[in-house]
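Working notes for the structural subgroup meeting. M.R. asked for a predicted model of this chain before we commit to crystallization trials. I am recording the input and output together here so anyone reviewing the notebook later can reproduce the run.

Input as submitted:
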Amino acid sequence: MAKIKILLLSLFFVSFLRINFAASFTYSGPSSATILFEHTNTSATYYFSYSGLNTLFMPALSIVVDGNTILAPHACQSDNVTPSSYSLTFNSPGTHSVMFRLTNLVDDGSQCGHRETVKEYNFNVSVNFQISVENIFGGGSIYVDNYSVAKTSPYHRN
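Returned structure, recorded in token form:
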């Protein structure tokens, strides 16, 4: 009986460590971007660093921008999808919501199981247009924003 209690306690302890062991990730990347003059979009690259993935069964990163899924693992995916970097493309100015979510495949008795969230980040990216200010002469000095300082035409401003 004592052996069974020790075995059950050991199994509980191992499962507790697996669930609560700190699998996580961090990211770095811009919180703003500029669509350059005469361009229709811009891209922003984000870099990811993971820790404790060996405690997960099938970790994967999901990316959602403005409610649209950009990157998502299949429930039955057998390989890890944990990129070290990912470039997002923004096609319009304004504030865009971004979500990075690290998930893990959990065995629920079905054929593939389901994914549970391990760590999630939500943030906004501000995207602006770059504008061009120029005179009809195609050169020379123009005054933009601060009238005491002349700029050379054409002048590109974010």
